[in-house]
Amino acid sequence: GAGVSQSPRYKVTKRGQDVALRCDPISGHVSLYWYRQALGQGPEFLTYFNYEAQQDKSGLPNDRFSAERPEGSISTLTIQRTEQRDSAMYRCASSRTVGLNTGELFFGEGSRLTVL
Amino acid sequence: QQQVKQSPQSLIVQKGGISIINCAYENTAFDYFPWYQQFPGKGPALLIAIRPDVSEKKEGRFTISFNKSAKQFSLHIMDSQPGDSATYFCAASYGQNFVFGPGTRLSVLP
What we know:
The complex is a heterodimer.
Chain A: E1 5-7, E2 10-13, E3 19-24, E4 31-37, E5 44-50, E6 53-56, E7 65-68, E8 75-79, E9 88-95, E10 106-107, E11 111-115
Parallel strand pairs in A: 2-11
Antiparallel strand pairs in A: 1-3, 3-8, 4-5, 4-9, 5-6, 7-8, 9-10, 9-11
Chain B: E1 4-7, E2 10-14, E3 19-25, E4 33-38, E5 45-50, E6 56-59, E7 62-67, E8 72-77, E9 86-94, E10 97-100, E11 104-109
Parallel strand pairs in B: 2-11
Antiparallel strand pairs in B: 1-3, 3-8, 4-5, 4-9, 6-7, 7-8, 9-10, 9-11
């Protein structure tokens, strides 16, 4: 596609349910990032992948959060046993290159999660 | 050390005026400093970026000024237009580690 695509755009769930958020990066982009953005705040790093390998997951808040990118393209962020504090905008970004000169991140429009 | 500070939190400017947003960082390993522009309902999009080997970069009405010794950088928007009304995020990066500031909400009055 032309840009980074995320689905669902909006997700309302009840506390305790599991949710899966999907990201389809720009074709050919080797790196994929997940961020969480609270209202009125900047993106907060969660995790990133180069190809299918998860390089850094230090930003994941706890072990209820996990992410995968099994074929080096589409990625899924899964939140188990959701809590109200998980409510936020979850943004995916991709970049063409890896390493020292990564350059521009291309962001998707995000998935807004509301946990009741 | 990973934090990027940004000010002001919000800014109101008259059309034709100059908008100035400031950022500061601590980690001297950062070597790439982009600014992202975000419109409501959209994801952030790269506006302009600078590397620390230069002190200024200009693209049209947008200029980044970079002070390596002070570990500060700023975005100047000349001749601000209502279409510039958006939230602006500074960021600092080394390798694939990107840290974003909290954002500045800019409103340009017609």
